[in-house]
Amino acid sequence: MIRDNAITIDEAAKLVKCSYHTIHRAIKKGDLIAYKPGKVVLILEKDFSIKQIRTVRAGRPRRHLEVHSRN
Nearest 5°: phi and psi at 21? Predict the structure, then answer.
């Protein structure tokens, strides 16, 4: 049975310590292979790797300030 060798999106998110949406986005981009044998989306353990998930820090990019002397 597939469920014995697979994890859900929620379980994958907990393993990687990221959000459900990050895992779902990786599936939509094709970075992660998932199956939907019913209502639940499953990721096979053999197809899952933490390296496949790219997390991007939310927020503004840092501003680079130039310091000028008053001489």
Answer: -65, -35
For the question of whether the overall pTM of this predicted structure is more than 0.70, the answer is no
Q: Which residues pair with 42 in a beta bridge?
A: 8, 35
Helix, strand or coil, per DSSP, at residue 30 = coil
Distance (Å, rounded) from C-alpha 44 to C-alpha 47? 5
Number of Cβ within a 10 Å radius of residue 49: 11
Is 62 within 8 Å of 31 (Cβ atoms)?
no
What structural domains does the chain harbor? 2-52 (1.10.10)
What is the reported pLDDT for 66?
75
